[in-house]
């Protein structure tokens, strides 16, 4: 591990120092340090988070510029609204109708007073989508992962998980008290080595993500399934970024790999393709029934508003009835990858998430401001979300993007890379 002084001069030095030294400082000192850090970013026009969007999250959005106070139009390449469902006319119509009929909320958790026919219909539709016996709805994707792992896995069990797994899985493992170990990202050889000699555990679980949000790659489910079968292990698939957009009909990453009948437990969210909020788990009836009473993030959280359930149901209708949206998305993915490779970037992503890892020497915050000034809304992924050497911009493509939108994006990427990269370093891992 590099020492802190080796990062002096790096734009992340202050944040790294805060995270390390903050463990020894009291709350007042930590918050004062962080306030100074944020103020300095603001002063240098390097703060591009919490941008205020004044319009629907479409391919174009209106954003309030934090530095000028003016409203400007930007091309949105930072949203998980992959199929454009966030402002699809049919989805909006159904959502409005549900709000008029059921009101804006239910005022309680599902086990007591927050379970409507819309919630049950959605569970049935999700189970059908994933080829499972039953489903369970959570108020957030984070809560779904947290409740799933902490309820099902205990101190007698072993859970092996991909090193690039989401923070919600890590937190669920902490709550479960289970024995756990990570394996190198998408390295089935490493997984196979780790799972050997694990007969002493009561149950074994292998947890992977269908699509990894920081890399844009997919878990090799066909190979992982074989390892699980040979070692009597349950498969937990987090398909947050795969549901609705992976596979021939959008059923998810398991459909993409033709292993739908081999997945024991699938977790997903409504905050990506469906563009609302909430999460779900699909599995056997016995596991879902158990989770209804033992997943604390389900038992002690209010139900999703009925209008949200209706929005997801409407989204499922659109996915089924308008397959051209998925076709458009896949066309845009292929077009963007080809264009980025033509300007010298090495892009290998297989999904609508395309990471642009920043070259050595690039100040990601100054480059982020440049994208913003050029009218391109991108997400900059900084340390500590990823290691300092792995910082990146993340392009998220939508079915509604036009070829002209993508051409504009490519032109800006090329200009920013040339301006903020060291000479000869026009590459992205």
Structure description:
This protein is an alpha/beta fold. The protein has three domains: 7-44; 45-76 and 324-420, Aspartate Aminotransferase, domain 1 (Alpha-Beta Complex); 89-321, Type I PLP-dependent aspartate aminotransferase-like (Major domain) (Aspartate Aminotransferase, domain 2). Helix content is 41%, strand content 15%. The protein is built from 15 helices and 14 strands. Strands 4-10-9-8-7-5-6 form a seven-stranded mixed sheet, sandwiched between helices. It has a four-stranded mixed sheet with strand order 1-2-3-12. The longest helix has 19 residues, at 324-342. The protein is globular.
Task: Summarize the entry for a quick read.
The protein has helices at residues 13-21, 27-43, 89-102, 117-130, 141-152, 167-176, 188-195, 221-230, 253-256, 285-294, 296-299, 306-321, 324-342, 364-373, 403-420, and strands at 52-53, 60-64, 71-76, 134-138, 158-162, 179-183, 204-209, 234-238, 265-269, 279-283, 353-357, 376-377, 379-381, 392-396. It has 429 residues and is α/β, with parallel strands linked by helices. Strands 4-10-9-8-7-5-6 form a 7-stranded mixed sheet, sandwiched between helices. A 4-stranded mixed sheet has the order 1-2-3-12.
């Amino acid at each position: 591990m590099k020492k802190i002084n080796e990062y002096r001069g790096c734009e992340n030095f202050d944040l790294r120092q805060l995270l390390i030294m903050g463990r020894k400082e009291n709350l007042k000192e930590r918050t004062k340090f962080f306030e100074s850090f944020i103020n300095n970013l603001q002063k240098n026009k390097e703060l591009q988070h919490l941008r205020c969007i004044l319009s629907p999250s479409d391919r174009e959005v209106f954003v309030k510029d934090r530095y000028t106070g003016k409203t400007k139009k930007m091309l949105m390449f930072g949203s998980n609204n992959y199929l454009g469902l966030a402002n699809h006319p049919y989805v909006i119509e159904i959502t409005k109708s549900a709000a008029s009929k059921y009101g804006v909320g239910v005022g309680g958790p599902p086990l007591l007073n927050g379970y409507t026919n819309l919630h049950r219909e959605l569970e049935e539709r999700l189970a059908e989508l994933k080829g499972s016996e039953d489903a369970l709805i959570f108020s957030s994707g984070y809560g779904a992962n947290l409740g799933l792992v902490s309820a099902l896995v205990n101190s007698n069990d072993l859970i092996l998980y991909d090193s690039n797994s989401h923070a919600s899985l890590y937190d669920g493992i902490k709550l479960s008290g289970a024995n756990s170990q990570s394996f190198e990202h998408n390295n089935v050889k490493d997984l196979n080595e780790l799972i050997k000699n694990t007969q002493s555990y009561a149950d074994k679980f292998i947890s992977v993500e269908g699509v990894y949000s920081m890399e844009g790659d997919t878990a090799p489910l066909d190979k992982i399934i074989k390892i699980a079968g040979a070692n009597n292990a349950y498969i937990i698939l987090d398909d947050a970024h795969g549901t609705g957009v992976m596979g021939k009909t959008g059923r998810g990453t398991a459909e993409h790999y033709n292993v739908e009948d081999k997945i024991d437990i699938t977790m997903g969210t409504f905050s990506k393709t469906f563009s609302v909020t909430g999460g779900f788990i699909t599995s056997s009836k016995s596991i879902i029934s158990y989770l209804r009473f033992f997943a604390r993030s389900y038992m002690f959280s209010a139900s999703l508003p009925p209008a949200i359930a209706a929005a997801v149901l409407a989204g499922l209708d659109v996915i089924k009835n308008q397959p051209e949206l998925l076709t458009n998305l896949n066309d845009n993915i292929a077009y963007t990858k080809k264009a980025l490779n033509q300007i010298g970037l090495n892009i290998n992503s297989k999904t609508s998430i395309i990471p642009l890892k920043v070259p050595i020497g690039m100040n990601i915050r100054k480059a982020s401001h440049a994208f913003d000034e050029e009218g391109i809304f991108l997400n900059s992924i900084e340390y500590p979300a990823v290691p300092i050497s792995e910082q990146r911009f993340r392009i998220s493509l939508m079915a509604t993007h036009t070829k002209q939108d993508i051409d504009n994006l490519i032109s800006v990427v090329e200009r920013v890379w040339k301006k903020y990269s060291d000479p000869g370093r026009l590459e992205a891992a």
